[in-house]
Write a structure and sequence with these properties.
The chain has 16 helices and 15 strands. With about 450 residues, it is α/β, with parallel strands linked by helices. The strands form 4 sheets. Strands 4-11-10-9-8-5-6-7 form an 8-stranded mixed sheet, with helices on both faces. Strands 12-15-14 form a 3-stranded antiparallel sheet, covered by helices on one side. The protein has a two-stranded antiparallel sheet with strand order 1-2. A hairpin with a 2-residue loop joins β6 and β7. α2 packs across α4. The radius of gyration is 24 Å and the shape is globular.
């Protein structure tokens, strides 16, 4: 008997009603992740509808990311439904524990916004942005110059409310549920959530300190990936940064698949001092997203997007149907910050490097392998995420479970270095080494 019949009786007279009922049962826990659903004809008999209606209901559920079709295993509830965000795989941080799990920048390294916001307010008083106002000309000019200085091809520009805002609109414009998309593994948890929510099929690409491995990208492209997402610098969670040599190898592979959509994430701009080696322009359809969140603060929700004209037109069209535009107060504030050089990128990058490189080196001295070439995080492989997290909590440290970021890679922990001081590194490295190689089960008590 199907698990669905034991816990939930399928009802509804239309495809929408059947799909809504199944989705509610999943959300309420009456249908567990991995639960098998009946074949289309059996579903039609149970709900007393036509097979076409039953098939349409399953199609709606697939499009919403609630179920997946698993070949001979039939239709099943997704192992982790799209309605459950990876960030919900969380740990309770007791009082007094140093929280290294959040992925936030160091507030002390963020610029003051007083002058930038005051300048934006003055500009608003002089010429308030109204319906139909284009994006801020100064911001676009500054962004274009910065991108050209980094070797990005001259192309149209757009402004969105952060990286995910842009990526969701572009993926939705080109891909359909069931399409394959190549993603970094481990990768950004929010992107992996978005892929699931759109009903896309992730094809994981392993990576090293220099970015996705060429063989992994080649395998994903040969497997039919219609889109590829690559992080240029400060990859979350591994800290990888694409080198010139790796970029050349990846461009060669992408050039053989000109119809693939390339999404390049450069959120490292402003707090990472390694050079950008862009892949932009290698395929016919591409975007490069440059976020201000880590350099200026996560609440400054703004990203600059560049890409081929057709893709930028699709992005803007979808934006007009939703939010319409990004606040011109924010746009003018970012323009002021860029124009005045409010962030010393080299100094900020050096501060994060002191903590990140220090932790990686200290772990290496203790025989523990870790990744963290650039950015805010260090990725530490472990045998058992739950056990390692429990041990670290008992020692006063909170680390993020790698399950948030993994598709097929082995267990690991992600530690954000921004809350650390140099004196924290030796004791943290000692505790991490013990967590990775516990001497006995009793140490976890």
């Amino acid at each position: 008997m199907y698990f669905v019949l034991e816990k939930y009786r399928i009802t509804g007279g239309t495809a929408s009603e059947i799909a809504a009922g199944v989705e509610a049962a999943v959300s309420e826990g009456r249908l567990a992740p991995g639960a098998a659903l009946p074949p289309v004809r059996e579903l039609a008999a149970l709900a007393q509808v036509s097979p076409n209606t039953a098939a349409a209901a399953y199609r709606l559920l697939r499009e919403r990311g609630v179920v997946e079709t698993a070949g001979r295993r039939g239709t099943r509830v997704r192992p982790r439904p799209a309605s459950t965000a990876r960030e919900d795989i969380r740990i309770e941080v007791p009082p007094g524990v140093r929280d290294l799990s959040k992925g936030n920048p160091d507030p002390a390294l963020l610029p003051s916004l007083h002058e930038a916001l005051a300048a934006a307010a003055r500009a608003h008083q002089e010429r308030p942005a109204m319906y139909g106002t284009d994006d801020d000309e100064e911001l676009l000019a500054l962004a274009g110059a910065r991108l050209r200085g980094d070797g990005v091809p001259v192309a149209p520009l757009a402004i969105t409310s952060g990286t995910l805002d842009a990526v969701e609109r572009v993926l939705g414009a080109y891909l359909r549920p069931g399409d394959a998309i190549a993603v970094e593994d481990p990768g950004w948890s929010s992107l992996l959530d978005l892929v699931a929510a759109l009903g896309l099929r992730p094809v994981p690409m392993r990576l090293d300190d220099d970015g996705p491995l060429p063989g992994e990208l080649d395998k994903a492209l040969r497997a039919g990936a219609r889109a590829v997402v690559i992080t240029a610098r400060a990859q979350n969670p591994s800290g990888a940064a694409v080198t010139a040599e790796r970029a050349a190898a990846l461009r060669e592979l992408l050039a053989a698949h000109p119809g693939v959509l390339l999404v390049e994430d450069d959120h490292g701009d402003g707090f990472v001092d390694v050079s950008l080696h862009p892949l932009a322009g290698t395929t016919a359809r591409w975007i490069l997203v440059r976020s201000t969140a880590k350099a200026f603060g996560p609440d400054l929700r703004l990203s600059v997007i560049t890409g081929d004209p057709a893709t930028l037109d699709r992005l803007r069209g979808r934006q007009r149907l939703a939010t319409g535009w990004v606040s011109h107060l924010l746009q003018r504030a970012v323009a002021h910050l860029w124009r005045t050089g409010a962030v010393d990128t080299a100094a900020v990058a050096a501060s994060y490097a002191e903590r990140r490189d220090g932790l990686v080196a200290a772990l290496a001295e203790r025989g523990v392998r870790a990744q963290g070439r650039t950015g805010l995080n260090v990725w530490v492989p472990v045998a058992d995420e739950a056990a390692a997290i429990s041990y670290l909590l008992a020692r006063g440290w909170a680390a993020a479970p790698g399950a948030r970021n993994r598709v097929a890679t082995p267990p690991a922990l992600r530690l954000t270095v921004s809350p650390l001081w140099p004196d924290d590194i030796p004791p943290l490295a000692d505790d991490l080494a013990a967590a990775v190689r516990p001497p006995s089960r009793g140490r976890y008590g």
